[in-house]
Amino acid sequence: MSEALQELIEIAGRHARGRRIRTAIPGVSIGRSEVATAPLPGVWGSGVLFVVQGAKTVLIGDRALRYDPASYFIYTVETPSIRSDSRSERGTSLSGHWLDP
Fold first, then answer.
1. Residue 3: enclosing H or E segment and its boundaries?
2. Strands, DSSP E only, in the chain?
């Protein structure tokens, strides 16, 4: 694992407790989930999601999209979706960083 990725995981571990929290940097929030979650329906606003540990599955219509540390997702418009968080293969929590436009 790269040093930069490990640092992002540690930042999320220090600051995020459960659901997404806003940081002191405008438009940047951090989330962490200690357990896998059941599918949750909702509408995501525009932004960019970086998963730094674990994985997130997003269902948009009939498409299932999986995001992990090797990928990212850009929402350009409000998007109705169903999403769930899962633990990594090593059993570690999901951690992610969200950038609002």
1. helix 3-15
2. 21-22, 28-33, 40-44, 47-53, 55-60, 63-67, 72-75, 79-86, 94-99
Instruction: Say yes or no to pLDDT of 101 above 70.
Output: no
Please say whether the dihedral angle defined by the alpha carbons of residues 74, 78, 79 and 80, taken in this order, is positive or negative.
positive
pTM value > 0.85: no
Structure tokens at 36: 């896998």
- The string of DSSP letters for 29-56 reads EEEEESS----EEEEE-SEEEEEEESEE
- What Cα–Cα distance (Å) separates residue 22 from each residue in 16, 29, 63, 92, 98? 9, 4, 29, 22, 9
- Residue 98 and residue 33 in contact, taking contact as beta carbons nearer than 8 Å: no
